[in-house]
What does this fold into?
Amino acid sequence: MKRNLPAYFLLVLLFSVPLSAQNFEKISIVPQPAKLELTKGAFAFDGGTKILIEQNDETVKLANLLAGTIKNLSGLQIQITNSAEGDPKNSVRIIIDPAIQNTEEYYLSIKPDAITIKSNTGAGIFYALQTLFQLFPVELKNELTVPCLEIKDSPRFKWRGVHLDVCRHFFPVEFVKKYIDVLAMYKMNTFHWHLTEDQGWRIEIKKYPKLTEVGAWRKEADGKLYGGFYTQDQVREIVGYAKEKYITVVPEIEMPGHSLAALAAYPELSCTGGPFEVGNLWGVIEDVYCAGNDNTFEFLQNVLTEVMDLFPSEYIHIGGDEVPKTRWENCEKCQARIQNENLKDEHELQSYFIQRIENFINSKGKKIIGWDEILEGGLAPNAAVMSWRGTEGGIAAAKMHHNVVMSPGTHCYFDHYQALSGEPKAIGGYTTLEKVYSYEPVPDVLNNEEAKYIMGAQANMWTEYIETTNHVEYMLLPRMCALSEVVWSPKESRNINDFVQRMTHQYDLLASKNFNFRIPTPFAESGEYLITDSEEIALNSPVKNSKIFYTLDGSEPTVNSTLYTKPLLFSEDELLKAKTFLANGRTSTTSSIAITLIDTTENGLYYKYFTGEWDSIPNFWELRPETKGRVHKISLGEVKHADDNFGLDLYGFIEIEDDGEYTFYVASDDGANLYIDNKIVVNHDGTHAATEKSGKVYLDSGRYPFKIFYFERGGGQDLKVEYEGPGINKKQIPANKLFFDNY
It folds into this structure.
């Protein structure tokens, strides 16, 4: 039989198309419009089609964008005409309508004889065109037609952001423009450009030439110089390019920490006087700007003056995160500043630093935004907060009636892994397309008034381990498409299955524009897939004209492996590896799962689920669980949990087949302890990143009580248990070795 998957299995078919492919492609729009109604018929472009506008610089620019796109796709030369003189039939009419209130709202009507686009701003017209372009076929086979429909659309949030760190690794101007292109395709309107860091200063400041002469170059471990910077002319070019696509560029100039590159150039701005070298290792560095030195503020004000002349954005990002206080604690000037300003401690000194910078930026008619650490010691009066350490900082700022951009590492850090194995190097974490799509920027704890201060959300692309432009695109796409729908579309309209279906056309569109993206694997990887009897397993790919090759012997799939043509039949445990191959030779990563036969009435563990905030494993037996239930393997995905802070008590029995010494490995983020036969075997308690610990125990054959205590304190989430022993190489404990009862 073909598998009708139970809800508890992690293997999820990527999609099942409910409409014909032709009809489906015609309405594949990402992000999903607020209101869309399909009507009968289609509009066909031909040599007589005209674009009608009330001519001004902005409408001419937008009309040329439409005409150029049509020409590139079909070869048709579309004439642009003044709307007062043109025939409304067989036309695309662009109308600036002051009656439309939302500045980014648009109306798109496609009828058999005409297309009408309305908005009260060029931005709205631009977004309508992006929607129209997604209705075009990727490759034109006959005439250029689009389906008849009515769309009324506007964004849910005003800040729809994507960040790029060019300091850890530097990227050329042309790539930054390409990055902006794909943001514009999906109606993102803010490009957060991270320009200064410990590992490199990337923007020319004419008053301080050493910032780029020295600060833009670091010596790598092999002795080679690495770096680069953008001249002010290049910055103007990029800012102007983004403006043409209705994207605001928000620069980030880090302070008081993450400033080693600047201190290497001007060591007198530090607490110790140096000397320093531009950082060539990642992490938090103790040397920061001296907060007791007035020359520091003079320097930063001069830098910011040049920066603000280059960037017309309302906000200037001043960083403010991860500022060690060690140097300040031992600096005479900083301690004098604390006394003279009647500050309590170094945390208030940081607040003084931020507020002094804010006063200067405010005096120039602009506002600051910073990472949520700027809350420490007291928030600057007019500052906006970018909440990255979970949601707490954003909640606190919103309750104080400060504007907030939500960007928690759990859902919005695109430098995290996208699958459990086979991915290119990443900094850590595990953030899938589905997890990004599930994000809700407005925390439930905010009331309606407080929720108004949530400006939107942003994806962050840190590049410690991302060295190439191809790698950046791979980490960005398609996850940015998911976030675009989170920040644009109405909350109630979002549906992951519908989104995945609509992405089918988007993959073709991205490929046609030469973007590198993560190719969906043939199945959602889970490490172990449980089946209960002989059954068929279906694989699928949402990318057209792709093929799936698979193996059952543990080898990597190639084009010489078995071609998938029909659902697979399993009657025993197998190791299934599969990969998607595109027509152009590009491939997905390898999906690898152990197919394990189980008895669902016997195999598995009980669990108790708790909510709370802990720094170490609590006495779960003294707490009241939120829920209880059964799982069939050791995986956080088996337990439905929506909380950032929670705990688990997993318990049952493990079957050991042969006498001997066994080593158990626990990989977790945060703490986890493993008990066998009521004795602790692995102690991996405490708050920490995803790391592994092991323990050894001698066991005779038989069944033993088996228990795992686990807790999560915000951030990444991970729990995996493996073992090795007589005749067993290190692997996950198979589900058919775990039992609810000891019989």
In short: The first strand starts at residue 35 and ends at 44. Residues 1-25 have pLDDT under 50 and may be disordered. The chain has 18 helices and 39 strands.
